[in-house]
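Technical annex, item 7. During the second reporting period the consortium partners agreed on a shared format for inverse folding records so that results from different sites could be compared directly. Each record opens with the tokenized structure and is followed by the designed sequence. A conforming record, contributed by the partner at site C, is shown below for reference.
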């Protein structure tokens, strides 16, 4: 490929199209195809598979994003997180499980301080009206948890 001087920025680059370098061509000459996104139903530039770029990232990279957030917010490995959050320690629900810190200190990420709770029991243990009930169930299963105080 021959090198040319871009008509817009005057940088020497490989010829791309219409006398522009690649960046200037994308900014000035190239127009993306707009579609109605299959997922969000909004008119946005087409990215891939009938989706806008945001929805494509959400759908195709969802698990990767979740794994990154486990490491970022909980500072534990993905394998440990998945092991802890397999089942609710109170009711044995296994569809949606939250990570709970037994001492209510979210910076204390030792394995012994973490248990999995379903969203209902997790909300209950953090509500002073229901905390005693959940703590007693956990105590009967051999898990020492801290009460939420008013």
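Designed sequence (site C submission):
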């Amino acid at each position: 490929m021959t090198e040319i001087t871009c008509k817009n920025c005057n940088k020497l680059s490989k010829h791309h199209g219409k006398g522009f370098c690649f960046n200037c061509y994308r900014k000035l000459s190239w127009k993306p195809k707009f579609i109605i996104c299959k997922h969000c139903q909004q008119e946005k530039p087409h990215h891939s598979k009938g989706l806008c770029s945001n929805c494509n990232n959400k759908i195709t990279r969802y698990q990767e994003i979740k794994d990154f957030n486990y490491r970022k917010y909980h500072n534990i490995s993905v394998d440990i997180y998945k092991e802890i959050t397999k089942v609710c320690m109170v009711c044995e629900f296994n569809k949606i499980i939250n990570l709970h810190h037994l001492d209510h200190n979210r910076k204390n990420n030792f394995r012994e301080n973490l248990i999995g709770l379903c969203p209902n029991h997790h909300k209950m243990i953090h509500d002073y009206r229901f905390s005693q009930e959940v703590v007693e169930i956990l105590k009967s299963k051999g898990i020492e948890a801290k009460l939420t105080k008013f």
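The mean pLDDT is 89. The radius of gyration is 26 Å. All partners now use this format for quarterly exchanges.
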